Amino acid sequence: MNEQVQPAGGPMFNPLSPDFIRDPYPHYERLRTVDPVHVTPFGQFVTSRHAEVSLVMRDKRFGKDFVERTTRRYGPAIMNEPVFRNLSHTMLQADPPDHTRLRGLVVKAFTARRVEDMRPRIQEIVDQTLNAMIDRGRMDLIGDFAFRLPVTIICDMLGIPEEHREAFHKGSSDGVRILDPVPMTPDEIKQSNARNLMAQMYFQQLFELRRRNPGDDLTTQLVLAEEDGNKLTNEELTANIMLLFVAGHETTVNLIGNGLLALHRNPDQLALLKARPELMVGAIEEFLRYDSSVQMTGRVALEDIDDLAGKRIPKGETVLCLLGSANRDPAAYPDRPDRLDVTRQNVKPLSFGGGIHFCLGAQLARIEAEIAIATLLRRLPDLRIDDVANPEWRPTFVLRGLKRLPASW
Length: 409
Prior knowledge:
Largest sheet: 5 strands, mixed
CATH class: Mainly Alpha
Structural class: alpha+beta
Order of helices and strands: HHEEHEHHHHHEHHHHHHHHEEEEHHEEEE
Radius of gyration: 21 Å
Shape: globular
CATH architecture: Orthogonal Bundle
Number of domains: 1
Number of strands: 12
Strand content: 5-15%
C-alpha cells in the first residue's frame, strides 16, 4: 500500500481551499519536492512534475475510462444523473475506438488553415466590443471583454442563430465543478443537472432547426453524422455539441483574463509588450505556461504500472496530472519558472493536454487571445486593473479563471 505524505497542518493537496484557489503554485512546489506522485485522501494519485505528467498523458497504458473512475468515486448510481451521463458520451472522456470516431467528425473544423481564416472575424468582434466600451472609461475585463469574444466565435462555428446569442453572452460557467477532483455535493449535482437539462433542451431544438435548414456549420455536420447512425448516436450528438460550446470558450476566457492579470502584476513585462508588440505570439505561450487556464487532467491506469516516480499504480486507479505544476517545474524551465517572461524561449506548455486528447481548439484559443490582448494594449494603453493584488477567482480548480476583473482608463 502506498504511504500518504501529509503536512502537519492538513492535506498536501486541497485544491478547493481558498488559499489553493488564490495561488496554487507554492502548493505545487511542495508536491514536486516532497511527494511528486502523491496519494490524496480520496485515493487518487497526483503527479506534479513535468516528466511524469507528460508520460501519463501520452502513454497508452493510461486511458480515460470515465465510467470506471466516476463510479469508484460516487458509486454506480451516479451514472443515472444527467450531467454525468452526458459527460460520459463526450470525446473528452472517451478511449479509442470511440474517441477516434468522435474526434474524426469534428477535427476538420479546427485545421490550421480554417483557424487562420478566422482572424478577420476575431478582430472584428474585438473591435466591436471595445467600440461599445471605450467611452465608458471602465469595464469588467472578464464579463465585458474576455467572455464575449470566444462565445461569439463558438456560436458562429455551431451555427447558433443571432437572435439566440444574447442568452449565451449573459451565461454563467459555474457548472464546471464536475471536473474538479473533490467530489461534488448532492446540491451541486442537482444544480448541474438542471443546467445540463436546460442546455440539452436548447441544443435539441437547434438540431431540429439544422435538419430543416442545413448550414455551413459544425452542428449541421454533426446532425448529418447522427442521421448516419454508424457514426453518431443522439446522446453523442447532444453531449459533444455541448462539450464544443463549453470548451470553445471556457479556456479562452481564462487565458485572456489570466494573461491580462499576469501582465498588470508584472509592469516591466507589460511595458515591454507594449513597446514590442511583435513579442505577442510568444507571450501567449508564456501566459499559458505561467498561469494555465486548465490546471489538471486525469487518466486511469489500464494495467498495473510498476513504477511511476517510485509509486506502484494498480490497474483501474486514477492518476491526476497537474498541468499548472508541470508548467513551472524547474526541470523543464530552469530559468526562474515562477517569473513571467514574455521573451522566454522554447516555451512548450502542457496547458492543452497531450497525446490523443490534445485540445482540438488549441490554435483557435491562441489566436483569439493574441488578437484580444494585442488590440486591448494598442487601443487602451492607459488601462489599469483596479485591484491586481486581490482579484476574485472562481471557486473551481481544474478550470482556473477570474470571476471578474474591473479596470479603468
